[in-house]
Amino acid sequence: MDYLIGGISFIAAFVFSLGGIGAAIILIPILVSLGIPINVAKPVGLFYNTISLSGASISNIKNKLLDFRGAIPIIISSFLFAIVGAWFSQYIPKKIILGLFVGFLLFSGLMFLFHKKKEQDTYRKDNPILALSLIGTLAGLLSGMLGIGGGGIISPLLLMLGFNPKKITTITAFVVPFSSFSGFLTYWSLGTVDWKLSVIAATSGLAGATLGTIFMHKRLNPKTVKKILAVILLLMAVKLSWPILSSLLH
């Protein structure tokens, strides 16, 4: 079982790091399907997100690929409003939140797939603090409400602002560990952390995400990264919509 989880964690981290998005949203349902309780799987996924994307960010920082000025406003606002989102979630039916999020992911994935952009030198180079803070606010609210990372929110909105997809992946990969670690600490305080499982998944995820990030920057162009992001977001939409479809069928 340990080897199986390690292998799955490595592959998931490699693929999702190409888009700078944490793979916990895929890892958690896989762990549950293997018989691991959801309350144990969630902190494993959050710790996995924290470590794997931290590794990817370290690689980006070493290679001077990360734009700190673009990342900081999103980190601060998403971290603060994730708390607000978590508090509001107790008053809003989860099916409504989930339905809205699935719709947004579908829109975002299709936008990544079909959005047309001019030549690479037309990508914007500035860092609009207000717009980035608003993106972080929205990502934090939805992340807090749904208990998942905000990468699926941050990436498409940054694309809409006109940033280079490669810059988007580095910023997203840097932002997500902060909210994931905050959630992990909450589960730790509740005593639901399986440290052995968490370390196995996180170690494999760190290796996969680091290799995935290096591969992206050396082998892939922005157009390819956009397509990868589109596939990831659409897969996330399908995954999140499954509980809704199941409830409707039953």
User: Mean of the pLDDT scores?
Assistant: 79
- How many distinct helices? 10
Order of helices and strands: HHHHHHHHHH
Taking pLDDT < 50 over at least 5 consecutive residues as the criterion, the unreliable ranges are none
Structural class: mainly alpha
* Backbone shape: globular
Please describe the biggest sheet, giving its number of strands, its sense, and whether it closes into a barrel: none
Number of strands: 0
Assembly form of the protein: single chain
Which band does the percent of strand residues land in? under 5%
Give the distance, in angstroms, between the N- and C-terminal Cα atoms. Answer: 32 Å
For the record, the count of structural domains works out to: 1
* Helical amount: over 70%
Radius of gyration: 17 Å
Describe this structure in words.
Helix 3 (about 40-60) runs parallel beside helix 9 (about 195-220). With about 250 residues, this protein is mainly alpha-helical. About 80% of the residues lie in helices and about 0% in strands. It contains ten helices and no strands. It is globular. It has one domain (about 1-250). The chain starts with a helix and ends with a helix. The mean pLDDT is about 80. It has helices at about 1-15, 25-35, 40-60, 70-90, 95-115, 130-145, 150-160, 165-190, 195-220, 220-250.
How would you briefly describe this protein structure?
The chain is mostly helical and 250 residues long. The protein has helices at 2-17, 24-33, 38-62, 68-88, 94-114, 129-146, 151-160, 165-190, 195-219, 222-249.
